[in-house]
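Problem 12. The chain below contains 200 residues. Write out its predicted structure in token notation.
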Amino acid sequence: MVDNFPLFPIGIIIFPGEIQPLHIYETRYKQLVHEMSECDGSFGIPYLNEDSISEFGSVVKVHKILATSPTGEMDILVRGERLFRINSIYEKLPGKLYGGGTVEFLDMFNRKASARLATYFGNYRQQIKEIDKDLSRQLIGDPQHIFEIAGQLPLDTEEKYSLIQATSHSAREQLLMDKLSFLLMINKKLEEVGYRFYLN
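Solution.
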């Protein structure tokens, strides 16, 4: 349990190892990004669903500041580190413009993938390599854990949130197995008709 953890609610979920772009324009979040980049600190992105802050979110670090405008707006990349659950939330942290809360890290959710899931993901990666070499370069490293694999799949936000909300590790694995089975089938059909496949 961590108290006074910086929070930046937004409508995205970022899994461990996943890199996502953000555009920072509010003064409070400019302050947050500057402070976190200077100290290599982590902050939380609670999933904002239709103006309602959800129970779960992503812990991220500033991976790279791409550009800064004369007005201080920034385009940055953040990298997912882990997941968390919110226990309480505060509008502002002491002496800061941005808010925060008390959070519980959910490292127990990111268990090592089963051999079956790892095999399915390996088949998917090989299939992508054969279909589109440029796209295959986005599938980096050798992910061993369930959310690291999920971060390399074309999941929409609702699918990601369903994965976090699942009641057990086996349920999470089954959700990913179902998605991989669907992707493998679609890619095979695309190969058969000569199309190239692109992740959205």
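Discussion. Strands lie at 2-6, 19-24, 42-49, 52-68, 74-90, 100-105. Students who got a different answer should revisit the alignment rule from Section 12.3.
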